[in-house]
């Protein structure tokens, strides 16, 4: 549907519609050729007259004190025809949210931020954190074919977009997937970011899948956290033999999730304990640091074995050195490490989270089949978001931290 006329009609048009969730964009340049195209369909919302919404935002980077609750955040708008507006029922937290709050990755993420969206203030602030969402589709852009208002969905929103610690969030439809039927919103919000990170590391980068895992020995560092608890279940669903490294108090948890061997990294020498085991085909490292110096030697040599780490200096390099030099430094680092490890007969890779609705569709199948279940450490109410950040910051996660956004008390 097109409405021809001067761009000023945008305001009038919105007033007539009386609902700002109707995204409007301009195509055409001159006054006479300008036209405004309505990009959304389906006004099935309980909030038809909302212009503002509750949200947790930051106005600068820093410690937990920068988190600010506002009920004045502008309601999200559909700017592109492939976008959807979601009502957030629950939002998952990740260590990345704590890092983002402190400014980690700001340079790289600012480079990716949509100028249309940050135009009113000229900066990324006020910035809403939170990547994971489980909720309901409220509005669909005109090109959205796969979803309709009312669909229950889950997603992990790309980190350069406004986040999910808000009543509503806008996402690209290709970031969104139908929520597993057997999960509540709280349970579903615990999985997308860690699930997609695991998917990227294990399947896309690591090349493991349901057809080639049955005789593989896999070692997981950081097994009790969000990523670890998901990866154990994924690899067990695919038939791998899993050795999990975690603290002693988490060993029952990881065994329940299917880990075959459990190593307590705090009791004696972790390296010596692992050296006593048969060598591995695949290592997933979500801990980093000194582990990377010695752990690759636990892999079978010259057999295609892979060391995939989630701890990469990519965003830090861009923050410190700027985009061009930061990317160059990262390229040189990964290049040097790849060659060094290739010479010893193993493959070394970095893996990154990547937002993807289709990958979430695949994960949904595993969840619906009961092969992967949520592991929730703690649920916080929407008013307790700062407490949830504090808990994340303390570390020692045993699964996931989730915010119940619908119940705000
Ligand atoms: N590259 C990416 O795109 C990407 C995406 C997601 C995550 N990550 C990385 O992966 C890390 C883990 O993410 P997450 O969501 O799983 O974090 P998380 O939920 O906070 O879990 C971290 C887990 O690691 C354990 N741990 C700490 N030191 C350990 C060690 N030396 N050996 C074994 N376990 C150890 C912690 O428990 P205890 O301290 O009690 O042992 C905790 O259970 C993040 O910090 C981030 O660096 C990267």
UniProtKB/TrEMBL annotation:
Keywords: Mitochondrion, Oxidoreductase, Transit peptide. One of its GO terms (cellular component) is mitochondrial outer membrane. SMART domains: PKS_ER. The gene is RTN4IP1. Residues 62-403 form the Enoyl reductase (ER) domain. This is Reticulon-4-interacting protein 1, mitochondrial. Its main location: mitochondrion. PROSITE patterns: QOR_ZETA_CRYSTAL. GO terms for molecular function: nucleotide binding; oxidoreductase activity; zinc ion binding. Belongs to the zinc-containing alcohol dehydrogenase family. Quinone oxidoreductase subfamily. SUPFAM superfamilies: GroES-like (SSF50129), NAD(P)-binding Rossmann-fold domains (SSF51735). GO terms for biological process: nervous system development; ubiquinone biosynthetic process. It is found in: Mitochondrion.
């Amino acid at each position: 549907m097109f409405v021809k006329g001067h761009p000023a009609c945008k305001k009038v048009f919105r007033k007539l519609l009386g609902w700002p969730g109707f995204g409007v964009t301009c195509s055409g340049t001159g006054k006479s050729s300008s036209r405004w195209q309505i990009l959304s369909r389906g006004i099935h919302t309980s909030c038809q007259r909302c212009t503002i919404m509750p949200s947790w935002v930051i106005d600068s980077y820093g410690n937990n004190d920068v988190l600010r609750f506002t009920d004045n955040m502008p309601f999200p708008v559909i700017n592109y025809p492939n976008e959807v507006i979601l009502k957030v029922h629950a939002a998952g937290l990740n260590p990345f949210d704590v890092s983002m709050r402190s400014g980690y990755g700001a340079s790289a993420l600012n480079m990716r931020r949509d100028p249309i969206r940050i135009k009113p203030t000229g900066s990324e602030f006020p910035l809403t954190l939170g990547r994971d969402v489980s909720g309901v589709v409220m509005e669909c852009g005109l090109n959205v074919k796969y979803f309709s208002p009312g669909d229950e969905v889950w997603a992990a929103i790309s980190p350069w977009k406004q986040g999910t610690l808000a009543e509503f969030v806008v996402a690209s439809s290709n970031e969104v997937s139908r929520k597993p039927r057997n999960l509540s919103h709280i349970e579903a919000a615990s999985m997308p970011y860690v699930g997609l990170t695991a998917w990227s590391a294990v399947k896309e980068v690591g090349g493991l899948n349901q057809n080639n895992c049955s005789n593989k020995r896999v070692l997981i560092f950081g097994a009790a956290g969000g990523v670890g608890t998901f990866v154990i279940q994924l690899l067990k669903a695919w038939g791998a033999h899993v050795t999990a490294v975690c603290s002693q108090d988490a060993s029952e948890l990881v065994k329940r999730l299917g880990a075959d061997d459990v190593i307590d990294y705090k009791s004696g020498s972790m390296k010596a304990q692992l050296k006593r085991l048969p060598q591995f085909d695949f290592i997933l490292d979500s801990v980093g640091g000194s582990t990377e110096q010695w752990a690759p030697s636990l892999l079978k040599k010259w057999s295609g074995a892979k060391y995939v780490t989630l701890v990469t200096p990519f965003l830090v390099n861009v923050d410190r050195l700027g985009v061009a030099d930061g990317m160059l430094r990262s390229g040189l680092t990964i290049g040097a490490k790849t060659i060094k490890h290739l010479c010893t007969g193993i493959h070394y890779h970095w893996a990154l989270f990547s937002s993807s609705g289709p990958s979430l569709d695949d994960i949904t199948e595993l969840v619906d089949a009961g092969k992967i279940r949520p592991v929730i450490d703690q649920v916080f109410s929407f008013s307790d978001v700062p407490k949830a950040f504090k808990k994340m910051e303390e570390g020692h996660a045993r699964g996931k931290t989730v915010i119940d956004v619908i119940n705000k008390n």
